[in-house]
Design goal:
15 helices, homodimer, 5,6-Dimethylbenzimidazole Phosphoribosyltransferase, Chain: A, domain 1, alpha/beta
């Protein structure tokens, strides 16, 4: 069976959530010992998780960041500030618990699982890395497709399987996370296509480009879109042409979580391009998708608008790795504890409004 | 010794933080394995905690919400939506772990300590409540001063002592929290005075007033300010005239934390009025004061502006109890773990920019 037909089976298995469960959650929320709706957006998060889990006592006690790593042929065009070796060096740093995501995840009690989907260097002897390498990096999308269609489907299925494995191990909330030097360039290309936006509106400074660097990135994205003649009605084809192996895998994480009826938070700009791809591949997956923060990367706001989502946090972050996702998992955890464990007015013997 | 002279000793003991510690923190932050400043405001939080703690490896592992409860004579004017009994009923609910603050605090690993500073009902037989009652509720500020000057100073010292006790028990981060039916009315009056704002700009719906109720609240606040002839250059006198026992105690929590060189997060509108009072009483306390969320209550933004602080979270909450403070403690925890435990580029063997 081809990876694309496996993916089609996943798409067919994703069902929308039941709005009745969300209504039941609001009934419970409005009976808890607080003025109705006084917890604002935290109540909305609780209701959405309740809807996904089909219960008015949802739980996200067990949390995991599924972090996908890959390299990008397009760095040949000089779009990255850091050398390409930083991809594997940061993978090593993450399994060694030295990266930002390790600390943010620890602060909310989440595990971090790093997957090699497309790092150039052989990481098979690096303890702690889940090896799911589809290819040692993508090809340069500015001169031709970054991946074959089957490579892209295989990378998506890596993410689907990672989500399935996480849920089988008990995960109740998943966040996406990324690592890949140069990956804001394919993320910009994907966002331009899936959000129907000019490349100049979705290309930002990444890890630290100056104005000239950003202008060059815009030109590279424009060239990649032209060379590959992408068709937005074929989202897997778009992912293959101007995506990345780790980005495709992150789209798979969203689809796999949706298949498993599990809430999935998407992190920043790279994860946002993957979330957009996932929702274009299967619109029903949107019911399981939660925003996290608003990245400083300008294309992230374009993605959020295209997805119709308001971010939970606005902290001027732009790191990726799942850092915004992890912090947001903490807020969602508070939301679930609130709806599940608070006393009602009747239970607590508290008088309601006069 | 009078309570006011005890308070003056506290004010004299509060010293500004050392900016050199913040500079050292930024040096460390810029050497950690991430693009410089890519964690945005989270880095700023880490630097501020580092400055308060005088180390570039700060910790806020032990966290506590100091929740102060009190009743308000001004409810005679019909400014509250819930009956006055809800104050003690909610205190019972909080010690029984049924309130929102219990769940939010649990989600960030914080303890909650409830103090009776001025609840009308005798709570001495309610297990778990710290009894520090100064008076059984304030008097109606619309007809005269809510407290005597000495009562207000005593209530402030309740908060100072609560902060001292918390720090002695190991607390590294404190959040304020409030409970008191009717307390948005004194909080509005204090904000009008300390932020030099029209009452109409700082009176909101509280727990659920309609437009007519808000207009009535504005009239009550205007009357209280007129009847009491408050002088903003005497902040303790203002607190006594138009404050509340739990609000005075929360101002004391801020002052006590500052005296103990400990970071203190202030919650929503009630806590914001206490934070403003504390900073007017002792401007150096501002170095130890951290914002949390932006409440829907319009006066909260006025307070934040007057304090020159940007909130960390904007989640459309308006509950109080310390709920916004608790969530923010989680973000500050992530910030401290990040600066203290991340690897530097050199330690991790990660290449820096080319």
């Amino acid at each position: 069976m081809s990876y694309e037909s496996e993916l089609n089976a996943v798409i067919g298995a994703i069902a929308p959530t039941d709005p009745a469960a969300e209504e039941a959650a609001w009934t419970r929320l409005d009976n808890l010992t607080k003025p109705p709706r006084s917890l604002g957006r935290v109540e909305g998060l609780a209701a959405r998780v309740a809807c996904v889990q089909g219960t008015d006592r949802p739980s996200v006690a067990k949390k995991v960041v599924l972090l996908m790593a890959g390299d990008h042929g397009v760095v040949e065009e000089g779009v990255a500030v850091y050398p390409q070796d930083v991809t594997w060096q940061m993978v090593a740093n993450i399994v060694g618990k030295g990266a930002a995501i390790n600390q943010f995840a620890a602060s909310v009690g989440a595990d971090v699982l790093v997957h090699d989907v497309g790092v150039i260097r052989d990481l098979s002897d690096m303890p702690g890395v889940v090896i799911r390498k589809v290819a040692p990096g993508t090809r340069n999308m500015a001169v031709g497709p970054a991946m074959t269609r089957e490579e892209a489907a295989q990378a998506v299925m890596v993410g689907v399987q990672a989500a399935r494995d996480a849920v089988a191990a008990g995960a109740e909330l998943i966040s996406t996370g990324d690592m890949g030097i140069g990956n804001t360039t394919p993320a910009s290309a994907l966002t331009a296509v899936f959000a129907d936006a000019e490349p100049a509106l979705v290309c930002g400074r990444g890890t630290g480009l100056d104005d000239e660097g950003v202008a060059h990135k815009v030109a590279v994205v424009e060239r990649a879109l032209q060379v590959n003649g992408v068709n937005e009605l074929d989202p897997l084809g778009v992912l293959a042409a101007v995506g990345g192996l780790e980005i495709a895998a992150l789209a798979g994480v969203v689809l796999g979580a949706a298949e498993q009826r599990t809430c999935v938070v998407f992190d920043g700009f790279i994860s946002g391009s993957a979330a957009l791809a996932a929702v274009r591949i299967c619109p029903a997956a949107a019911d399981y998708l939660f925003p996290s923060h608003r990245s400083v990367e300008p294309g992230h706001s374009v993605q959020l608008d295209a997805l119709g989502l308001e971010p939970v946090l606005e902290l001027d972050m732009r790191l990726g790795e799942g850092t915004g996702g992890a912090l947001t998992m903490g807020i969602i955890d508070a939301a679930c504890r609130m709806i599940s464990n608070m006393a009602t007015f009747a239970e607590a013997g508290v008088s309601d409004k006069e």
